[in-house]
Protein 1
Amino acid sequence: ELQYLHGFGNEHETEALTGALPHGQFNPQQAPMGLYAEQFSTTAFTAPRHQNRRTWMYRIRPSAAQGRYEPMASDRL
Protein backbone atom coordinates (compact mmCIF):
# COMPACT_ATOMS: atom_id res chain seq x y z
CA GLU A 1 0.00 0.00 0.00
CA LEU A 2 1.38 3.41 -0.98
CA GLN A 3 1.51 6.23 1.55
CA TYR A 4 1.97 9.85 0.53
CA LEU A 5 3.12 12.96 2.37
CA HIS A 6 0.46 15.60 2.97
CA GLY A 7 0.77 19.42 2.94
CA PHE A 8 3.45 21.91 2.01
CA GLY A 9 7.02 21.65 3.37
CA ASN A 10 6.42 17.94 3.91
CA GLU A 11 7.53 16.33 7.16
CA HIS A 12 9.06 12.86 6.94
CA GLU A 13 8.92 10.25 9.65
CA THR A 14 10.17 6.72 9.99
CA GLU A 15 10.09 4.34 12.92
CA ALA A 16 11.92 1.10 13.63
CA LEU A 17 9.04 -0.29 15.70
CA THR A 18 5.37 0.37 15.10
CA GLY A 19 4.01 2.82 17.68
CA ALA A 20 7.41 4.34 18.57
CA LEU A 21 6.47 7.81 17.26
CA PRO A 22 3.95 10.01 19.08
CA HIS A 23 0.83 10.89 17.09
CA GLY A 24 -0.46 14.44 16.79
CA GLN A 25 2.44 16.12 18.63
CA PHE A 26 6.23 16.23 18.59
CA ASN A 27 7.09 16.51 22.27
CA PRO A 28 4.61 14.70 24.50
CA GLN A 29 5.11 14.67 28.27
CA GLN A 30 5.80 10.96 28.00
CA ALA A 31 7.03 9.62 24.67
CA PRO A 32 5.89 6.14 23.60
CA MET A 33 7.96 3.14 24.71
CA GLY A 34 9.83 5.19 27.33
CA LEU A 35 11.89 7.05 24.70
CA TYR A 36 13.40 10.52 25.20
CA ALA A 37 12.35 13.27 22.77
CA GLU A 38 15.15 15.55 21.52
CA GLN A 39 14.95 18.37 19.00
CA PHE A 40 17.86 19.32 16.73
CA SER A 41 17.54 22.67 14.96
CA THR A 42 19.08 22.89 11.49
CA THR A 43 18.72 26.65 10.94
CA ALA A 44 20.28 29.75 12.45
CA PHE A 45 18.34 31.52 15.20
CA THR A 46 18.25 34.60 12.94
CA ALA A 47 16.23 32.84 10.22
CA PRO A 48 12.58 33.82 9.76
CA ARG A 49 10.22 31.48 11.59
CA HIS A 50 8.70 30.07 8.39
CA GLN A 51 12.18 28.95 7.24
CA ASN A 52 13.06 27.10 10.43
CA ARG A 53 13.78 23.41 10.00
CA ARG A 54 14.26 20.89 12.74
CA THR A 55 14.64 17.21 13.41
CA TRP A 56 12.92 15.39 16.25
CA MET A 57 14.68 12.29 17.50
CA TYR A 58 13.31 9.77 19.96
CA ARG A 59 16.20 8.04 21.70
CA ILE A 60 16.62 5.17 24.11
CA ARG A 61 19.01 7.35 26.18
CA PRO A 62 19.28 11.14 26.04
CA SER A 63 22.36 12.48 24.22
CA ALA A 64 23.41 14.20 27.47
CA ALA A 65 23.93 10.74 28.98
CA GLN A 66 27.05 10.18 26.87
CA GLY A 67 30.12 9.31 28.89
CA ARG A 68 33.28 11.38 29.12
CA TYR A 69 35.18 12.08 25.94
CA GLU A 70 38.57 10.44 25.70
CA PRO A 71 41.43 11.24 23.33
CA MET A 72 41.56 9.09 20.23
CA ALA A 73 44.90 7.56 19.32
CA SER A 74 45.20 8.55 15.67
CA ASP A 75 47.74 10.55 13.69
CA ARG A 76 45.11 11.53 11.10
CA LEU A 77 43.31 14.03 13.31
Protein 2
Amino acid sequence: MIKNKNVLKGIYQSCKRRTEISLFFFIFFFFFFFFFFFFFFFFFFFFFFFFFFFFFFFFFFFFFFFFFFFFFFFFFFFFFFFFFFFFFFFFFFVLLRN
Protein backbone atom coordinates (compact mmCIF):
# COMPACT_ATOMS: atom_id res chain seq x y z
CA MET A 1 0.00 0.00 0.00
CA ILE A 2 1.37 3.39 -1.03
CA LYS A 3 1.27 5.76 1.93
CA ASN A 4 2.39 8.85 0.04
CA LYS A 5 -0.62 10.23 -1.81
CA ASN A 6 1.60 12.44 -3.99
CA VAL A 7 3.00 9.34 -5.68
CA LEU A 8 -0.47 8.26 -6.75
CA LYS A 9 -1.31 11.80 -7.78
CA GLY A 10 1.87 11.97 -9.86
CA ILE A 11 1.09 8.66 -11.56
CA TYR A 12 -2.43 9.89 -12.32
CA GLN A 13 -1.19 13.21 -13.75
CA SER A 14 1.46 11.41 -15.79
CA CYS A 15 -1.10 9.00 -17.28
CA LYS A 16 -3.43 11.92 -17.90
CA ARG A 17 -0.75 13.69 -19.92
CA ARG A 18 0.48 10.55 -21.65
CA THR A 19 -2.72 9.31 -23.21
CA GLU A 20 -0.69 7.32 -25.74
CA ILE A 21 0.50 4.96 -23.00
CA SER A 22 -3.04 4.36 -21.77
CA LEU A 23 -4.23 3.79 -25.32
CA PHE A 24 -1.34 1.43 -25.98
CA PHE A 25 -2.01 -0.69 -22.90
CA PHE A 26 -5.74 -0.73 -23.56
CA ILE A 27 -5.30 -1.94 -27.13
CA PHE A 28 -2.53 -4.37 -26.23
CA PHE A 29 -4.39 -6.03 -23.36
CA PHE A 30 -7.60 -6.05 -25.36
CA PHE A 31 -5.95 -8.04 -28.16
CA PHE A 32 -4.03 -10.17 -25.68
CA PHE A 33 -7.10 -11.28 -23.73
CA PHE A 34 -9.17 -11.55 -26.91
CA PHE A 35 -6.73 -13.98 -28.54
CA PHE A 36 -6.08 -15.71 -25.23
CA PHE A 37 -9.73 -16.58 -24.63
CA PHE A 38 -10.35 -17.20 -28.31
CA PHE A 39 -7.51 -19.69 -28.41
CA PHE A 40 -8.72 -21.57 -25.32
CA PHE A 41 -12.30 -21.69 -26.56
CA PHE A 42 -11.05 -23.14 -29.80
CA PHE A 43 -8.83 -25.52 -27.85
CA PHE A 44 -11.76 -27.05 -25.95
CA PHE A 45 -13.95 -26.98 -29.04
CA PHE A 46 -11.31 -28.80 -31.06
CA PHE A 47 -10.70 -31.56 -28.53
CA PHE A 48 -14.40 -32.15 -28.05
CA PHE A 49 -14.96 -32.72 -31.75
CA PHE A 50 -11.60 -34.38 -32.15
CA PHE A 51 -12.50 -37.22 -29.77
CA PHE A 52 -16.02 -37.36 -31.09
CA PHE A 53 -14.95 -37.83 -34.69
CA PHE A 54 -12.03 -40.02 -33.75
CA PHE A 55 -14.27 -42.58 -32.10
CA PHE A 56 -17.16 -42.41 -34.57
CA PHE A 57 -15.73 -41.19 -37.89
CA PHE A 58 -12.11 -42.10 -38.25
CA PHE A 59 -11.45 -40.29 -41.51
CA PHE A 60 -12.30 -36.95 -39.84
CA PHE A 61 -9.25 -37.40 -37.67
CA PHE A 62 -6.88 -36.18 -40.39
CA PHE A 63 -9.10 -33.26 -41.28
CA PHE A 64 -9.20 -31.93 -37.73
CA PHE A 65 -5.56 -32.72 -37.20
CA PHE A 66 -4.45 -30.50 -40.09
CA PHE A 67 -7.07 -27.91 -39.27
CA PHE A 68 -5.76 -27.68 -35.74
CA PHE A 69 -2.17 -27.11 -36.88
CA PHE A 70 -3.27 -24.57 -39.45
CA PHE A 71 -5.14 -22.60 -36.81
CA PHE A 72 -2.28 -23.03 -34.33
CA PHE A 73 0.30 -21.44 -36.65
CA PHE A 74 -2.14 -18.80 -37.81
CA PHE A 75 -2.93 -17.85 -34.23
CA PHE A 76 0.70 -17.45 -33.22
CA PHE A 77 1.59 -15.55 -36.38
CA PHE A 78 -1.30 -13.16 -35.81
CA PHE A 79 -0.60 -12.80 -32.10
CA PHE A 80 3.12 -12.04 -32.52
CA PHE A 81 2.34 -9.67 -35.37
CA PHE A 82 0.14 -7.59 -33.08
CA PHE A 83 2.65 -7.99 -30.26
CA PHE A 84 5.43 -6.56 -32.46
CA PHE A 85 3.18 -3.87 -33.91
CA PHE A 86 2.09 -2.42 -30.57
CA PHE A 87 5.56 -2.47 -29.10
CA PHE A 88 6.76 -0.75 -32.26
CA PHE A 89 4.04 1.86 -31.73
CA PHE A 90 4.94 2.21 -28.07
CA PHE A 91 8.66 2.60 -28.74
CA PHE A 92 8.61 5.05 -31.64
CA PHE A 93 5.57 7.16 -30.85
CA VAL A 94 5.87 7.39 -27.09
CA LEU A 95 9.44 6.81 -25.97
CA LEU A 96 11.17 8.53 -28.91
CA ARG A 97 8.68 11.41 -28.96
CA ASN A 98 10.77 13.26 -26.40
